[in-house]
Amino acid sequence: MVTPQTAPFLVSGMREKDLESVMDWFVQRKQSFYALGRIYVSKQEDLEEIFYRSIIVVHNELHRLKKETSFESWAVSHFIHNGRELSKNKSFRDSEGKKSDQTLFQALYQLEDQEKEAIALTYFTGCSFAESGRILDNSIEKIKSWVFSGVRKLREELGYGSFEGCREFHGHYLEYLGRTMDRPEKVKFEMHIYHCQGCQEDLASFQEMVLTLAGITDALDIPAEFMEKIRSKVEEREARRQRKKKKRKSIWLAFAGVLAMVLSIGFVTGGFSSLYYAWTEEDKQLRAILQHDLGERLNLESESNGVKITIKSVVADDVQTLVFYEIEDTEKDNRYMMNAHEGVHIENEYDVMRRDRQNMFYSPPVDQDEIQNEEKNVYKGTMSLLPVSMDSGTIKLNVARLMQVDQDTQKGEYFSREMTFAEGDWSFDIPFTKQSSRVHKLDKEIAIDGIPVRLDKLTIAPTTTLLQYSFQNQGGDRRIDVITFDSLGTDKKNVKADLFGGNMYVESFDQEGWSAFTSSFDTLYFEDPKEVDILFDSIHLSVDDRKTIPLDDLKNLPRKFEYQGNTITIDEVQAGNPAKVFVTHEVTKDRAYERVNYGFSSDYLMNENTSIGVSDGDGVLMDKNGKIHEIDVYEYDKLDQPRYFETEQTIEFYNDSSREDVNLTKLEIGGYSTTKYVDDRVKVKLD
Which one of 73, 224, 386, 568 has the fewest beta carbons within 10 angstroms of its own beta carbon? Predict the structure, then answer.
């Protein structure tokens, strides 16, 4: 698989640069992987998704690559798996491209899966039959038979002829054309071909088909922005992952100012009825699950380096798989928690988990005081995993590191101060039975602040209640980025929206302009309501309001200007690549915007490789009455309509195509973001 333009791959070198090197490796091989992806899907966004998922999986699993395993084969295996998964339940439709290419891939799509994969590995990625056998977990002879039968079918489908030739010589075609045939057999075969007109025609048409396949990779036209879109998506995911590792201040910023960017965090529910006996289980959520026979006590134990993990129970439904656990430091007074995004690996994830759901719920640290845990060396928590894909089975859970949590004795809260970890090797085989959920179609359309909003469905699962909603952003200068809800109410119970499980992106309906999200609430599974009262909380808006600020006189700084009735100051401008503009924003009680969004001046668009980035500085948290609060105060949910206002920004302009400085002549403001609190209430009947 090593091509002339790329040197053999060194895993040790990749590990030094990690995600960036994984991305670069795929960029170097984009032609062959693009062709490989086309045997599964045709739409550009689906091809981008295969690349994206493969890059993420390879990056996440790199530490598990065995030295004796070829990295190329290992990476291709992941790519093929993601292609198979994404092609399920999708109809194959032509995408843009050459007509001949479309016809070929249409014909490929009609082949058996093993045939098209064997052909793609052989002629698109340049794998040997032995490499293809390792990737597809089959013998070399089986790979050859799949390639031969697949090429014959393609030849007939595409009109290259249907000659049969002498059957006893069919097995020589691939080795002869691939120049791997031993000389005695080659001489014998060529002598037969010389005297057999039928075999001459058969081999010629077979060879023509092989040459067409071998040339398709280089002939494919990949859109110029294809890999950049994938890179942007990978970088956005990495940025979200890094934000999760920060202190609680990051959660503050996300909650108050940039909710639209937090689409992948989830939740741990609580607040069940106090009618259950306290002695049964101190964790209210687990207590309710056990009382209703939706789970069972497992008490699976594994110990490593003086730290013992006990899997107490597991409950799986259509939304998530929730693992209840206890961790005891048997040697010191430390508390450790499991983080699904750090050091946790599901060995058989592709077999038992739903890979179509990319967002995993986030499990925040559990307040140990709430569950009456006074032991300093014991932590009792929950961890959310992807939902399972089968009714019952076993999750093979491997844990390599645990995150230490510290108690703030002043507030009784638990959080990781410096991201300290305990390394080890803990393994579990966790049995599960998937519990059913109740899905209610709502199909109710309303208007929030004049923008169409649709309530699509309500999923009531044992672990959570999930509301799927959509909003429509077509035309106008105001767009909803995200909606937050206050609560769901029934005649028996009122459950609050979960801060850590809201605003999870689902999909877009481009032809209609609808974007779908979900928001989670404490479970209503045990109430079985017939009607719910949905109370909205806020909408996060992006508003178009352009303003151009000339930067022709950089000697007279700082410079002040007005925007939306508020004063913005340009404090400093630094030339270079990137060029930087430092601004500060005045904060008043009536300030309309929370964050300013910047765009490009036409001066910066001389080439398509100019980019812009905004780094946030300080900000303030303000309540409805204009009172400023400390950012590190954790009880923000007790504030009256809090909003986070940015006070400092650094705007960076990059010339991605050369090392030349960016020539700044003006600063372009495209609009702003703001949060508007609403009190809309909708009552819906459940079918």
Answer: 224
Cα of 140 vs its chain's centroid, Å:
36
| Those residues with Cβ within 8 angstroms of residue 164's Cβ, 6 or more apart along the chain or in another chain | 198, 202
- pLDDT class of 272 with cuts at 50, 70, 90: very low
Helix (H) or strand (E) holding 560: strand 559-563
Render pLDDT for 333-385 as a digit per residue (tens, 0 to 9). 899 999 888 889 999 988 999 876 656 677 778 888 778 788 889 999 999 99
Q: Side chain identity at 519, as an amino acid letter?
A: S
Shared domain check, 121 and 81:
yes
Neighbours of 154 (CB within 10 A): 22
* Comparison of pLDDT for 628 and 90, the residue scoring more: 628
- Average pLDDT (118-142) is 87
Q: How far is CA 659 from the centre of its chain?
A: 32
- Chain length of the chain: 687
Phi, psi of 4 (to 5 degrees): -60, -30
Q: What is the pLDDT of residues 277-286, one digit of tens each?
A: 234 467 778 8
The verdict on whether omega for the bond into residue 364 sits within 30 degrees of 0, i.e. cis, is: no
Cα separation values, 217 from 119, 122, 127, 630, Å: 12, 11, 13, 57
For residue 263, being part of any structural domain is answered with no
Residue whose tokens read 């590995």: 121
The predicted structure's pLDDT at residue 508:
54
Same domain, 121 and 158: yes
CATH number of the domain that 328 lies in?
2.60.40
**Which is nearest to 619 in space by CA: 254, 262, 260?**
254
Contact yes or no for 320/463 (Cβ under 8 A): yes
Number of domains in the chain: 4
Structure-model confidence comparison of residues 193 and 423, the more confident one: 423
Rounded to an integer, what distance in angstroms lies between the CA atom of residue 136 and that of residue 131? 9
Q: Provide the residue range defining the domain that includes 394.
A: 295-433
List the end-to-end C-alpha distance of the chain, in Å, as a whole number. Answer: 56
Q: What is the mean pLDDT of residues 669-678?
A: 92
- What pLDDT score does 631 carry? 67
Give tens-digit pLDDT for 168-199. Answer: 677 677 777 777 777 777 777 777 777 787 77
Q: Are 612 and 654 in contact (CB under 8 A)?
A: yes
Residue 295, phi then psi, degrees to nearest 5: -160, 175
Nearest of 235, 680, 629, 669 to residue 480 by alpha carbon: 680
Q: Report the relative pairing of strands 300-304 and 307-316 from DSSP bridges.
A: antiparallel
Burial 83-120 (b: 16+ CB within 10 A, else e): bebbbeeeebeebebeeebbebbebbeebeebbbbbbb
Paired strand residues for 188: none
Taking each helix axis from N to C end, the angle separating 30-38 and 71-87, rounded to the nearest 10 degrees, works out to: 30
Inside any domain, residue 229:
no
Residues 34 and 157 in one domain: yes
pTM > 0.90: yes or no? no
